[in-house]
Design brief:
heterodimer; A: about 400 residues; alpha/beta; twelve-stranded mixed β-sheet; 11 helices; about 30% helix; B: about 475 residues; Aldehyde Dehydrogenase, Chain A, domain 1; Aldehyde Dehydrogenase, Chain A, domain 2; seven-stranded mixed β-sheet; 24 strands; about 35% helix
């Protein structure tokens, strides 16, 4: 439980222990990569990470497919397979025996079919994606969002995200994971989170009916609230914002003769395919200035949060993400064969795996594509760069509405 | 490889994102274009007021003289372009290669743009109805008849979200610089050549570079230009027009539905006007909003349609560098196929006949691996009811519609250019009063034969300036 010992907020420890699950079954959660001693021999680190992933995979499959701990959904699904997950999954690559996960399975109820028996009775959340029209996709969560963001916390530099300082969360709340997750991150680091909500479903509706002025007015309404909070003396030093909202906030502050830096913010994380190398550079050089740290993240409700490779001028603003292995894995696969990895530097579609006690996803085809990247010392497994909407969907996808 | 930067108030900017612009036939990358992002535009527009300040250091007359010089440079000089240079022949070649417009049409568009620049002073005199230019510069002044007038600039810059495939639209923004208003251009992804060449020509003619921004980029760039410029023009389809309808900040240019109307007094002589009709439909490959998409008459419509079909139906695509090439290619994948399918569907309606098919050796749609052609199509409609009677496509296409003269004005709907062949004073008066016709030609004028001293889709002076009251002394006692 090393993640807890790093917290500067003792009451959180208590909460986490109370919420800890299944005391009789130990799932080894290997330390997040940043906690690993830097091993000079990258290939050794890669092998070690691979071994951990294999072990974690087996353990996760055992949990989800064992009649005493598995979820009704997977136990039912297993009956349709021509293989036995309990005996025939011996490493991560064996997950390819599963048919691809269909995200349509996440639409509709009952949501309880996703709760593993081993976690029955725990307080559960539902987070949703999509949902502008029709039934949204739902994911049941108990504590994954906390764990994901605690792990992410360990990658944040304290000098830019000072522990004990307060946060601004500028993005969607409602049925999304973000608000609760960022709020937990703030609390985990000993701070309090101030939240400004944005309803992306409403923005999509406005844009679809061509009401650009309405969407702009709504964005202004959101930004005005953020400006007010920042001016209210709450000692806010850290922020999460979507790229569009951060941009609007920074420009609004400039219009008022001040800036993100002058408002006291020293560290920001933002995410999504709109966080492009050009936008990264624009942020550092013009929008925020050199004294405000910004780091990209990539993730979704299903996967958790992938971290950006630490900024290095030599990268020329290339953004490379690494999944929080072994809890989640990102593969970059061929467009015409989703079981085949592309070569390093080559372009492919993003395939996600989620391997936590709460959720098992053996290969979900994300709506993004990118280039496969080599492992990094800090993250000794494959990364992905240049994430952008999958070209076959790009023209029909509304991106970056918030 | 030609590398084309973003231009931020005259300064080249290298982006982290570059997009190749490719030859429509071969897919070969012809240039790498640096891509702006929306935030960067919003950031730059915070300094927009400077552009007008800089331009007001010159008189409008001086700027008009610079336009004359720029016209010559644009038409004849070898000018810098990104990390290379470009002469006029190279300009036409690359514009043709990315837009699918034959080289001879690119050259014709060049001459048209240059003409407008050369005659800028007359154009402005016409559009301002002889207003002394210093009134626009100072915001107010005394007219020669002793009346105080005031024209207040409504913006420091004009934003333009330009189309990808239509090099003919650039004349619209050329008067902006001499009107002492800066230019913020978001070029179309396939037709950035005119904006960049014109920028360089203006700069070399003495216009300070600091009054220009050129932002090649994605949709967010167009959005940022539209959001931050107090006055903007955008080009698009009916949906775009609808979106900006009633927004005083925006002039939206879309389909023209331009038409030729033959009055009952002249329709019996229709054969005399076949050249005028064919040229209105066909020139510039029918790609302009000012190209005629309809010929309306109360009688002889079948014969008119047949004559037009006989003239245009056999015309086939030729290589882009063939001086006789007259058909432009469709370079957007699937567009021609979809249009063709839509036409076939609309032809199924009773009373609609395609007349050109019998004069064409082969199909209307000629698909290639990376591009397509649609061959000229003439349709006859026995009434104005079928949807195809009032349709416009980006190729030489026209419906010849039978309609009684007394119903014509009502039935033609919105019409950008209406060429009306009549000498009937009563009908002429009705045509003059018809508010659904924007540019009215009464007489033998092709729909695409624009006089540059006339306003186009609204007077740009009225768009950029507002006439208002100004007094610096009390009025006479009354």
């Amino acid at each position: 439980m090393s993640r807890i010992s790093k917290s500067k907020a003792p009451w959180i420890i208590e909460k986490r222990c109370l919420a800890d699950y299944h005391p009789t079954t130990t799932i080894t959660c290997p330390p997040f990569a940043s906690e690993s001693p830097v091993v000079s021999n990258l290939s050794e680190s890669v092998s070690s990470a691979k071994a951990k992933l294999d072990a974690h995979t087996v353990e996760t499959v055992q949990w989800h497919f064992h009649p005493s701990t598995g979820s009704p959904f997977w136990l039912e699904k297993a009956k349709t397979y021509k293989f036995d997950p309990l005996t025939e999954v011996k490493c991560f690559d064996d997950l390819k025996k599963f048919p691809h996960f269909e995200d349509e399975w996440l639409r509709g109820g009952p949501i309880s079919r996703w709760i593993p028996k081993g976690l029955a009775g725990k307080p559960a959340y539902v987070f949703e994606t999509g949902g502008t029209t029709g039934i949204p996709k739902s994911r049941m969560v108990i504590e994954d969002h906390w764990i994901d963001y605690e792990n992410f916390s360990d990658t944040l530099p304290d000098e830019s995200f000072p522990r004990g300082s307060n946060w601004l969360m500028l993005g969607p709340s409602g049925p999304r994971r973000l608000r609760l997750a960022v709020e937990h991150l703030a609390q985990y680091r000993g701070g309090i989170c101030f939240c400004v909500d944005l309803d992306p479903r409403w923005v999509v509706k406005l844009l679809k009916k061509g009401d650009v002025a309405g969407a702009k007015a709504y964005a202004d309404h959101v930004i005005d609230q953020a400006v007010t909070i920042l001016s209210a003396g709450h000692d806010i030093k850290c922020a999460f914002a979507t790229p569009k909202l951060l941009e609007a906030l920074a420009l609004k502050l400039m219009d008022k003769g001040t800036s993100i830096e002058e408002s006291g913010i020293t560290g920001i994380f933002a995410g999504g395919t709109e966080f492009t190398p050009q936008w990264y550079r624009f942020c550092r050089e013009e929008l925020l200035g050199p004294n405000v740290y910004i780091t990209p993240t990539y993730g979704n409700t299903l996967m958790g949060l992938a971290c950006g490779k630490p900024f290095d001028p030599a990268d020329n603003y290339k953004i490379t993400y690494f999944a929080p292995q072994p809890r989640a894995v990102i593969e970059t696969v061929e467009f015409n064969d989703y079981d085949q990895l592309v070569g390093y530097g080559k372009t492919g579609r993003v395939k996600l795996y989620t391997l936590t006690k709460e959720l098992f996803i053996p290969g979900f085809m994300e709506r993004d594509e990118g280039e496969r990247e080599l492992p990094h010392e800090k993250y000794p497994w494959d990364g992905i760069s240049g994430t952008r909407p999958f070209h076959e969907f790009a023209s029909t996808t509304t991106v970056g509405v918030y | 490889m030609l590398e084309i930067p973003v231009i931020r108030w005259g300064k080249p900017y290298e982006s982290m994102e570059k997009t190749p612009v490719v030859h429509f036939e071969t897919g070969e990358a012809l240039a790498n274009v640096n891509q702006a992002n929306g935030g960067l535009i919003k950031m730059d527009m915070r300094k927009a007021a400077k552009a007008r300040e800089i331009l007001r250091q010159f008189t409008i007359e001086q700027l008009c003289e610079m336009c004359v010089k720029a016209a010559d440079l644009y038409l004849n000089a070898t000018l810098p372009l990104g990390n290379g240079t470009q002469n006029p022949q190279e300009f036409c070649r690359i514009q043709s290669a990315t837009t699918g417009l034959p080289e001879n049409m690119c050259a014709a568009n060049m001459r048209k743009n240059a003409y407008v620049l050369q005659h800028m002073k007359e154009v402005l005199e016409a559009l301002t109805r002889g207003l002394p230019f210093d009134i626009l510069t100072n915001g107010y002044g005394m007219e020669s008849r002793g009346i105080m007038v005031s024209y207040q600039a409504q913006t420091s810059v004009l934003g333009m979200v330009l189309p990808s495939n239509s090099p003919g639209v650039h004349t619209l923004w050329m008067p902006v610089i001499p009107l002492q208003i800066g230019l913020v251009l978001k070029p179309g992804s396939q037709e950035l050549w005119t904006p960049y060449r014109m920028y360089e020509a203006f700069a070399q003619a003495g216009v300070p570079r600091e009054v220009f921004c050129l932002y090649p980029g994605g949709f967010d760039c167009g959005g940022a230009v539209m959001e931050t410029c107090e006055r903007a023009m955008i080009f698009g389809g009916a949906q775009t027009i609808e979106r900006y309808h009633g927004d005083p900040r925006v002039q939206a240019h879309g389909p023209g539905f331009s038409k030729i109307l033959l009055g009952d007094d002249m329709v019996d002589d229709w054969e005399k006007y076949i050249d005028l009709m064919a040229d209105s439909i066909f020139l510039n490959s029918g790609r302009s909003c000012i190209s005629a998409s309809g010929v309306w008459a109360s009688r002889h419509t079948e014969a008119i349609a047949d004559a037009l079909a006989k003239r245009l139906g056999p015309i086939a695509p030729r290589p882009m560098n063939d001086p006789a090439a007259s058909l432009a290619a469709f370079t957007v994948p699937g567009a021609a196929k979809a249009i063709n399918a839509q036409i076939e569907e609309l032809l199924k309606v009773p009373g609609v006949t395609e007349v050109s098919a019998k004069y064409r050796d082969g199909d209307r749609h000629i698909p290639h691996e990376r591009y397509d052609f649609l061959r000229p199509t003439i349709v006859h409609c026995t009434s104005s009811e079928p949807a195809i009677a009032n349709t416009e496509y980006m190729f030489p296409f026209a419906s010849v519609v039978q309609c009684p003269q007394n119903e014509m004005i009502k039935k033609i709907g919105s019409t950008l250019v209406g060429t009306c062949l009549t000498k009937d004073p009563k009908w002429s008066r009705e045509l003059v009063d018809a508010t659904n016709i924007d540019r009215l030609n009464i007489g033998e004028v092709r729909t695409n034969q624009l006089h540059w001293m006339q306003p186009h889709e609204g007077n740009i002076i009225d768009f950029l300036f507002r006439a208002r009251a100004f007094q610096n002394s009390p009025p006479p006692a009354h």
